[in-house]
Amino acid sequence: MKASKLLMATALTAVTAAGASSASAESLTLCWAAWDPANALVELSKDFEAESGIDMEFEFVPWPNFADRMLNELNSGGKLCDLLIGDSQWIGGAAENGNYVKLNDFFDAEGITMDDFIPATVTGYAEWPKGTPNYWALPAYADVVGWTYRRDWFENADLQAEFKGKYGYDLGVPASLDILKDIAEFFQGREIDGKTVYGAAIYTERGSEGITMGVTNALYNYGFEYQNPDKPYDLEGYVNSEGAVAGLEFYKDLYDAGTPPGSSNWYMGDTIDAYKSGQVALQMNFAFIWPGVNADPNVGGDRTGYFANPPGPAGQFAQLGGQGISVVANTDNMDGALAYIKWFAQGDVQDQWTEMGGASAMSSVVNAPGFAGEQPYNQAFLDSMAIVKDFWAEPSYASLLLPMQELVHGYVIAGQGTAQEALDSLVSEWTEVFEDEGLL
Amino acid sequence: MSGNPIDRVAEATPPTFASRVRGLSDRTIAWLFVGPSIVLLLAVNIFPLIWTINLSFTNFKANRLRDAEYIWFQNYQRILTDTGTWESMQATAHFLFWTIFFQVLIGFALAYLINKKFKGNDMWTTIIVLPMMLSPAVVGNFWTFLYQPQIGLFNYVVEFLTGIEASSFSMIGSVNLAPWSIVIVDTWMWTPFVMLICLAGLRSIPDSIYEAAECDRASKWRQFWTLTIPMVLPFLMLAVLFRGIENFKMFDLVVQLTGGGPGSITTLTSIDLKREAFEKWRTGYASAYAVILFVTVFGLASIYVKALNKVKER
């Protein structure tokens, strides 16, 4: 009796295990950050499930832990993700360490061409080495840092008059970073509707990448370059140029004069909260939040306007965000993962992706007639995507990011040393990293 | 069936097992019991330690495919000459000293008060120990709200007590205040732990000793310094040891609270080490860093334990 029960239990276990393994062969796990666009992707992927018969599972990690969690997963050879929508800066490391599948042959076979995507997103999300036709991802979500502002406050006649009296020009969408700072100062500590409000909510976060994603919007526009364009990894005079120093000083001035008290460690979620709660006149943030702002009952609709990062003395640039979708080399379901990429690269799916709250990087979608006027933020998105620059995407990007976080935060928030000293130290730190990597 | 429990156990023991065990020497049986623990210890403690020491002499990076090269003491030299390392050591020393100082002071005072018999004694004990039952990550997170200049309760309490405007200072954003902000939170959270240890010490002192002192007409002050303190001292030293070791490896609470900032003001050695090991992926360098910290903690703890034993022997 006991023996027969044992046999039955063993058989049941075997059947269950077999069932489980066959189910996993017909399912795909897609990993991404936990944010609104990810929810839209879940909805969108239901069509893929219906078409292919493959079950989609999702692993979404909150932004502050996203890099840690996913890079550990890749580096440890984990099998959690079949598909990964990874940050643009990971592409170098993931490509060189064999974590992502190179997609060139697949793209050629399936007729997928990178010419169909916004060039900046191809460079930023798919290529490694940069500027070469070696593709490790399909551009999946186009994103860029831009600004939202309280249009209702800007259009208030009394405030307009007071602003003009003080600064000598009209209060409106800032035509330069200097004007943006003036506006932030103007609103700082002001009483509006019986509430004290402040100038601008900007990125200042220390722990992950926040302050770097913020300060670069000032650095680029004042003349900061990552390296000598003619001599790779030659940093002296580019990272710490006179313009770069002025850009860093600008960001500190903006922080000191025009941001809410206690905003010393703010990133995406914090600036959204500050803006939606009516604390600030201006908000720096990635464009992915714009649909949410537009729909917000307190600040949405006509009460908010959107604009691209204003120019500085050395030009107009904005920090690239967004990600590409890659096939994880360790996947047990390579065919299924590639089938998902093929499905996702279709024009009509990309159209639907944008409609559902995603942000397609496909040129035909964003250049479609009427796209710019479809949503109040679409024009600002297009303007911003045309001026993007990105942080290093080297395999050692994390080693490059950490000293930048520390030194910029130390100068801007803690007021340690001077901007010149901070950037000189950054040159030393980055040079050491490149020497360690054998690149210098 | 016999009614004696011992006989019943003997009858229930399978004869084959009993005879097998009977055939083994005491020494073998002892090894059978201790063996699994030793294997486990070797696997999860000793082997990783030896492996870490080995890695510390290399330029190994865990996220790279290329082979590691032996660079011997270069990692150690770089760590010990790096100003960043010394700054994080300094931040750790500040955190360690002041948290232990406040926790011992306040913890002992609370234990002394709680030890007195009064109405609601148990309820107050329960309330006081509540903070240490919370997760450090949760504590770190909600103290960021308490420290908010615009809405934070802490800033408003300071304003109420001192008249300094609440929104005029930021505990976690200021270079001068941030190191104290983490000291305050850790003290709030872990003082109850020190209090409980002190309470155990106070309650272990027999009443008869105080009665004898009363007979000798010793004042309360003298009883405190010559009876209470010396008899509680071993417990206090134990509390200091526990809190010292815990705070030397403090990570979660501070990461949640300040992220190591502003700049690197609150970057404790554990945070620095984690960034080297799992963000920069400089595995060899981080191993050397870990070895240095291990030797430091082990050395200090050994000296301290010797002192503790001397106090206990008195």
Describe the structure.
The complex is a heterodimer of chains A (440) and B (314). With 440 residues, chain A is α/β, with parallel strands linked by helices. Chain A has two domains: 25-142 and 321-387, Periplasmic binding protein-like II (D-Maltodextrin-Binding Protein, domain 2, 3-Layer(aba) Sandwich); 145-319 and 396-436, D-Maltodextrin-Binding Protein, domain 2 (3-Layer(aba) Sandwich). Chain A is built from 20 helices and twelve strands. Chain A has helices at 2-25, 36-52, 63-75, 91-96, 104-110, 119-126, 151-154, 157-167, 177-187, 210-222, 242-258, 268-276, 290-294, 334-344, 347-355, 363-366, 371-374, 378-385, 397-412, 419-436; strands spanning 27-33, 55-61, 83-87, 138-141, 145-150, 190-192, 195-201, 280-286, 304-308, 318-319, 323-327, 388-389. Chain A has a five-stranded mixed beta sheet, with helices on both faces. In chain A, helix 19 packs antiparallel against helix 20 (419-436). Residues 1-25 of chain A have low confidence and may be disordered. Chain B is mainly alpha-helical and 314 residues long. Chain B has two domains: 5-55, no CATH class; 74-313, MetI-like (MetI-like fold), CATH 1.10.3720.10. Helix content of chain B is 72%, strand content 0%. Chain B contains 14 helices and no strands. In chain B, helix 5 packs antiparallel against helix 11 (220-248) and helix 9 (178-203) packs across helix 11 (220-248). Chain B starts with a helix and ends with a helix. Classes of the chains: A alpha/beta (440), B mainly alpha (314). Chain A binds chain B through residues 68, 71-72, 75, 93, 97-98, 205-207, 260-265, 279, 395-396, 398-399, 402, 406-407, 409-411, 413-416, 436, and chain B through 59, 62-65, 144, 147-150, 152, 167-168, 170, 172-175, 255, 258-265, 267, 275, 278-282.
